[in-house]
């Protein structure tokens, strides 16, 4: 429970914090709705829906980062945390909307993706070129979410001792994700020959997901707790193995998880032809016959449900699936050791790390 003394808020009260972030998200969407007009309702709906139902892992990482410096905060500190938590959610919404568009994804969190929903609305309204409308809606909704994220992040660090460092850290995060998105786009055009190694998808992970999923939210929380930028950089370095492990878990889920687990199409990474560490590992460990089958299946412009099942079998038979699990375990242990070496109160972060990496959705 949060403290009965309303001037103090316990950092360990995760549910109370997430409720506050949800309220901030709703308030921001309402403000944009009031600024808008009735005819732009579908745009506001797309923005609002993009922030619903997520796991809220990044706000939890933010809170755990703050806990590295303090176990409680005053009302002003709490408001800063809540605004940054909402900023991270809006930024993720922006990234996912645009990522789904680039990947031609059909589902996100069990619902039609923004561009698909836009196409459906345009068809219902008998607009010309419905798919173009859907693409435009996704671009604009993603941009709107990004602008809102920047505004909330700036408010979070306004007049804070670490204002410059905080604003730079947030902007650096956003910039690296966009670079990573391009690297991902480029990687998917590469042939699966001897030049495709795990180094390529790991570079994508370093830029696109490891930072903004785990490392940067923790760092931003630590900066809000007024830890020095130098200390925060050491924390970020210590968490690098967890950032990679987080995405490797996503690779595993993207290849093997059911739609009911992830809210995305089953085998979504395989359908989209994602160049992942799991795929690179299979090509490295597999027999010549297994590699040839994988290469042929990924060379197809589309893959059927039967193709997906065959790829899943090949990923397992090659030893890639089990090797990925072993590597995730090694990375988790390494991150834990590095975090402990900093001599910080990391119990809350360690608990969260287990949930981040050993998850099923």
TrEMBL record:
Keywords: Magnesium, Metal-binding, Transferase. Transmembrane segments: none annotated. SUPFAM superfamilies: Terpenoid synthases. The keyword Calcium does not apply. This is Polyprenyl synthetase. Belongs to the FPP/GGPP synthase family. Its cofactor is Mg(2+). One of its GO terms (molecular function) is metal ion binding. It comes from the Bacteria. Pfam families: polyprenyl_synt. It comes from Boudabousia tangfeifanii. GO terms for biological process: isoprenoid biosynthetic process. PROSITE patterns: POLYPRENYL_SYNTHASE_1.
């Amino acid at each position: 429970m949060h403290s009965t003394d309303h001037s103090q808020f316990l950092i360990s009260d995760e549910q109370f914090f997430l409720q506050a972030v949800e309220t901030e998200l709703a308030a921001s969407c309402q403000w944009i709705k009031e600024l808008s007009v009735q005819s732009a309702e579908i745009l506001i709906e797309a923005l609002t829906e993009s922030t619903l139902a997520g796991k809220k892992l990044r706000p939890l990482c933010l809170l755990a980062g703050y806990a590295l410096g303090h176990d409680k905060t005053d009302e002003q500190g709490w408001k800063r945390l809540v605004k940054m938590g909402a900023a991270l959610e809006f930024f993720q919404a922006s990234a996912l909307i645009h990522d789904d568009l680039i990947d031609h994804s059909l589902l996100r969190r069990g619902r039609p993706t923004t561009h698909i929903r836009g196409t459906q609305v345009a068809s219902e309204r008998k607009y010309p070129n419905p798919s173009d409308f859907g693409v435009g809606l996704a671009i604009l909704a993603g941009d709107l979410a990004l602008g809102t994220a920047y505004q909330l992040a700036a408010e979070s660090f306004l007049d804070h001792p670490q204002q410059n460092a905080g604003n730079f850290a947030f902007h650096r995060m956003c910039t690296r994700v966009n670079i990573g998105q391009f690297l991902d786009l480029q990687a998917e055009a590469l042939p699966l020959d001897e030049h495709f190694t795990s180094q390529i998808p790991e570079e994508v992970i370093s830029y696109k997901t490891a930072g903004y999923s785990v490392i940067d939210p923790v760092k931003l929380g630590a900066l809000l707790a007024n830890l020095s930028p130098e200390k925060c950089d050491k924390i970020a370095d210590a968490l690098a193995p967890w950032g990679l492990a987080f995405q490797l878990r996503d690779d595993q889920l993207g290849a093997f998880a059911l739609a009911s687990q992830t809210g995305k199409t089953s085998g979504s990474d395989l359908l989209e032809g994602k160049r992942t560490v799991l795929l690179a590992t299979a090509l490295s460990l597999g027999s010549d016959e297994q590699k040839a089958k994988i290469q042929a299946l990924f060379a197809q412009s589309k893959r059927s449900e039967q193709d997906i099942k065959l790829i899943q079998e090949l990923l397992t038979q090659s030893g890639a699936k089990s090797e990925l699990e072993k590597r995730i375990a090694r990375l988790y242990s390494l991150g834990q050791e590095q975090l402990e070496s900093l001599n910080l109160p990391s119990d809350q972060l360690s608990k969260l790390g287990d949930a981040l990496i050993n998850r099923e959705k």
